[in-house]
Structure formats: structure tokens, C-alpha cells
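so the lab meeting is tmrw and i was supposed to have these ready like two days ago... anyway. pasting both below. for each one the top line is the aa sequence and the line under it is the C-alpha cells. i havent really looked at them closely yet so no promises
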Amino acid sequence: MFLAPALALFLLLVLTPIVVAGYASLYKWNGFGLPENFIGLDNYTRAFGDPTFRGDLRRGLVLVVLSLVVQLPVALALAMLLNQPIRGRAIYRLIFFAPYVLSEVTTAVLFTLVFSPNRGLGEGVSRWLGADAGAVFADPDTVLFAVFLVVSWKYFGLYMMLFLAARQGIPKELSEAAVTDGATAWQAFRHVTLPLLGPTIRISVFLSVIGTIQLFDMVWVLTGGGPIHSSETLAVTMYQFGFRRFEVGYASAISIVMFLLSLVFALFYQRIVLRRDTAGAITNQGGQR
């Protein structure tokens, strides 16, 4: 009885849209009236034959790799630094975490103003240094990396706080014992601290990948997917076809592909990577009982 309201909301707001999107993806439909022109899997065939859609998959993979090799390591390094007894570390933590409090749209508008040609702060500084920062969102070769930097600026504070909280949960005695036994600071971090941070790192990787697959807000406000589809993501393409071209059937097929990518990754990651963490949590709960 107590679960009924939550189950009703889950059914209405999660399962029902998935079913409706899957149904609409089998039709050539403009979103008005009821779907009537059944075309089977043609929307999916069209998607995987579309160079823009395949480019979305490639760009999404690039953003995932960049997040894993740049964003998360930087967040981890800052967390380890701010765990040290340095002066003013509380202020530094606040400054680094502050961007995460901003909404995606606010962040995108902020950087649009910063790199605005002839007016933005970033453009003025870059020209003083002999560069042209205002062109980063207009150049197909640099726009994806510029978008990644904005996304990283927005989210690295979240991962930094997760790592910092996990680090503070590790007893100091463990690292001190390793140093007493002759380990260097790096060896203590590598063989003591890092393995104990494993569960937090694995969860952060999961959140980063899923978030990248669903990336829309900042890309739409920053570039609209341009120039020439150079920064377009799956969500942006879905929005373009669904709400700009009124090809709702095709947009629904793209949304189902996004859902399946997220679902397959989540199931695989939980089964292979998070299995040990989940088993440990279940074991601990059983012991407490």
C-alpha cells in the first residue's frame, strides 16, 4: 500500500513514456493525431545509415573518453590536494564546487558571454595573448573540445566532493602504517588509498558515462549542435527531428537507441564492475542484522 504512490509515478512517468516512444518509433509520424503509417524498423535503419547519427555516436564516445581520462583524474587530484591541511581549503572547496550548483542552461549562457566575440572576457584576454578564443565554438575542429571543457567545469566539482568525502572516510592510520613500513607517499596512495576509493571511483565513472550519453542542455545553448553537426549529440539530434522537423517517429527511434545504450551499459557495468561493491554491501547488511 505504501509503495503504490511511488509505483504509480514510476509507471506513469518512466515506463509509459518508454512504451509510447517504442510504439511511435515504428511509425512515420509527425506528432499530430494518432500514428497510422506503420513502417516497422525503417526508422532504426535510417538512423544507423545516417552519417549525422553515426557522428553522434562517435562524438559521444570521444566525450566519454575525455571525461574518464581528464575530468575524473583532475577531480581526484584536487580532492587529494584539498584533503591536505592547507590554508583556506574550505574556501577552495566552495569555489571548486560552486559551478555544480549552477544549472546547465546558466552555465552555457555564462560561457557564451565569456567567449562572445568582441565583448567576452575570454575573447579579450585571448586577443591580448595573440589568440582568438571567440572562434572555439565556431570552428568544427575545436568546438567539441570547447564543449567538453564547459561540461567539465560544470561537473568536476561534484566528483571532487565525492572523492573528498570518500577519502575522509579512510582511516589515517592505514596510510601512516604504510609510511611507517617504508612506503613512499605515492606508494601509500597507490596501494592503500586508491583501492579504498575504488567504489567511489566506479560510481563516478558510471555517472559520467550515463550523463554523457544524455548530454543536451549545455550543447543546445552553447552551439545548437553546430557548426555543421560538429558538436551534435544524440539528444540534440533527437530534439532537432522531434521538435524542429516534426519527425516524431524518427526522433522516438533515436530516443530508444539512447535508452538501450544507457540500459545495456548500466546492466553490464552493474554485473561486471559493481558486482563486488553490491555483494559487499549485501554482506555488511546481513552481518548487521
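ok protien two:
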Amino acid sequence: MRSNILLKKEFVQNIEFKKIISQDLESSAMSLPTPAQKPATVVGIERLLDIFEAFQLSQRPLSLTDLAEAANIPKSTCHAIVATLSSRGYLYSLSRPRALYPTKRMYDVALDILKKDPFLERATPLLERLRDTSRETVILGKRQGDSVVYLQVIESLQSIRYSAKTGDIKPMHSSSIGKALLGSLKETELRHWLAEKPLPAITSSTITDPEKLADDILQSRQLGYFQTRGENVSDVWAVSAFLKVDKETFAIAIAGPKHRMEASLPECAHLLVATCSFLSHTLCR
């Protein structure tokens, strides 16, 4: 009898969650973008991610009220999502204080997925070696739409360093990896992209003129590596290069504070180009 009640409760909770997702999809569909605009955001998925990121920021159990406030979503919506996550084993509840916290299940799922990544598993040891030899933060990235997504970040072990997170989204025109990825394009495609896209000033050093940026990227391509000098983060310099693996284009950057990178940039560029060349030859199937 009790199991039937629990199953019925879980069924109702799932129905409530599906209604919310459906409503979110309908509200997104009412304002469908033109092809030139960004795709509509699926609000339900955004809210699900907001909940996990709220736990990441708080680093402590949260009551339903605190969680809804931290994730900036309605309490009723939060309740439905929490109920579904709990029934799937992604959250567990505490009685004293009455609060919620993620289980290890999300970590296990993500770890299993990561282990089967076709590129990262083989590239990471070389990225770590590049970090150790350069003594600066090493980043692997790829183009995602008109932005850059960081796929792997191996931070420097020095106390003063450039810090970033896997999954960070960065501009194409001001980040070192973005400039490398733009440098992998044909000149006509590069100039067309720069002419069509906004190039906002991320810092006072960002190159915002399409012609100047195109010339900078093309000159860098002749050198075999690309540079940013405080263009994306003030007082941070970086050097990058692109590589192709199985028809996919990636870019790797070495980034650090200006006072160290200014003197070591040529050496870092040499190490970087050698690493990219080795990766592109050894990882191609």
C-alpha cells in the first residue's frame, strides 16, 4: 500500500515537472528568434542548471526557500524540479536542519561521460606537461557558435596566476584562444566574420576595429602563434595556437600575469607550438 502511494506521489511530481517544462517551452516558442538571433533558451533546463550552480556557490545544504532564492526561480517551480531530482537520486534531504544537498550521482555521471571523451583523455597529460614546463595556466578551447568554450583548464601552481573554469564562455575577438580559432579561417571568411560581428571593448586594450584585428590575426598566423596583451583580462597576457584533430579545430593557450608573460612569451610560444604539432600528429586516427 505504501509503495503504491509513493509511486503515485512520484508520478504526480513528474507530471508537475513536465507541465512546468512544457510551459517554459511554450513561453520560449512565443518569441522565436530570427535565424540571425541567438536560439531560444529552454528555461526549464536553465533553471535546472541554476539549482546545481546555486549549490556550487553556497557549498552547503539549502532549504527549499533558500535554494529558490539562490537560483532566482519561483518556489513552486523549484519544488517541482527538486522533487524530480530527489526521485532520480540526484538530491537528498536532511531533517535537521531541513535542507537539501546533491548526492554524488551527478559527479559519477559526469565522470563516466568525461572518461569517454574522444579527445580530452588523451590530450590532458600533454596539457599538464605544458603547464609544468611553462609554469603558467594552460587552456584548451573550441569554437561554440560565435564564442569560445573552455574544454579544459590546467591552472598554474603559482600563487599569482590566471584562473578560469572548464565551461567558461569567452569572446572570440578578445580572447587568445578566440584569436587562434579565427586565425584558422580563410582570410575572406575571417574578414567577413569580423565585419559582421560586434567587437565590444572587453578591456581598454581590446582591438575593436575589424581591419586592425584582421591584420593582427593574419600577422600572427605567419608567426605560427597568436597573442593577447590584456585584451580580455587586464594585466593578463596569453599566447595561443590552433590545431586540427580529425577535422575538428581546437586551440590551446598559455596565460599568465603580464609581469611574467612579457619576458617568457617567446619561450611559451615555442613550447606551445611544439605541443600543438605533437598533439595534431599523434591524436589523428
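from a quick look at the 2nd one: Residues 245 and 280 are 6 Å apart (CA to CA). Confidence is low (pLDDT under 50) at residues 1-40. will dig more after coffe
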